[in-house]
What does this fold into?
Amino acid sequence: MTQELTVQLADQKREKPDQANLGFGRIFTDHMFMMDYTEGKGWHDARITPYQPITLDPSAMVFHYGQTVFEGMKAYLTKEGRVFLFRPEKNMERLNRSNDRLCIPQIDGDFVIEGLKQLIKVDQEWIPTAEGTSLYIRPFIIATEPFLGVAPSKNYIFMAIMSPVGLYYKEGIAPVKILVENEFVRAVKGGTGEAKTGGNYASSLKGQEVAAQKNYSQVLWLDGVEKKYIEEVGSMNVFFKIDGEVVTPALNGSILHGVTRDSVIQLLKHWNVPVAERRVSIDEIAEAYRNGKLEEAFGTGTAAVISPIGEFLWGEEKMVLNGGQTGELSKRIYDTITGIQKGAEKDEFGWITEVPVSELK
Ligand SMILES: *Cc1c(COP(=O)(O)O)cnc(C)c1O
It folds into this structure.
């Protein structure tokens, strides 16, 4: 698929936000990347346009049956003023896997990456410069056919919007408290847990709300059948260090294929730290804790990279890890991955794609 990409620049540039208070996902850049899909014609009219509201028919299928997918990635500014993307081809691969599950047509990953690079170039002044900040990129696809029948839509819109984001943890990485979820489930094998689709998030809100009322920041999701095996933490993949070995739940059909997850596994193998992808039960974790062998636990995802876990509450049992402090290995992984992303560490794995931009300071 070779497509043209047209560029329509905004008449006015909006004021850039205060970098000390970026937060996450409320501020958007001047432009966005869009393309349309029409059955019989494929993806067409790829364009960079000013960031603006879109008009949809109220009967557009996405509003009714949730046929939608998304991705989350970041652009990082190095000290030298270069702009890096982290493994964007993995996001495109996953977008197409999500598309397949949701009966949405495949996109041309290479073309979309080119479009994203153009978009970043156009909005390069929006990449924040302060320590720990980055430009979050949100590609997504929605079903737009005006039709209330339950069937795959014949029309779609692809969009990518961008948001300058702050450091996830203001005081560096800080451990969070996690409630083990015994009632609600996020996903089941055969369902859509492997796809990055809005419905998974909608169904996770309730458990999250209950946890927040109890002062826990996220939930630990167990499998949907036996409620015994660990799947994910919040909207992150999860890792445990038990007696020197790192274990993470194997991808079983209901766990999202995290790019950060994959990167952590590669890194640990490279460091000769024993790492296993297998089934991990909550009983095993509690048993390891009681025997003093549960050394560290952390979540992984693009937003926070590494989110150390300081405490689990499972029913009546409270497990405090590492005195509630960030573990040594968690910190080392965090420093290495963020170092590669910012160009401060050597990219030995070929994870970086550079975005050609004119000189930034
Ligand atoms: C996006 C996501 C992750 C993390 O994936 P990354 O590619 O590492 O950002 C993990 N779990 C869920 C449910 C997700 O949606």
User: Anything to note?
Assistant: The chain has a mean pLDDT of 95.
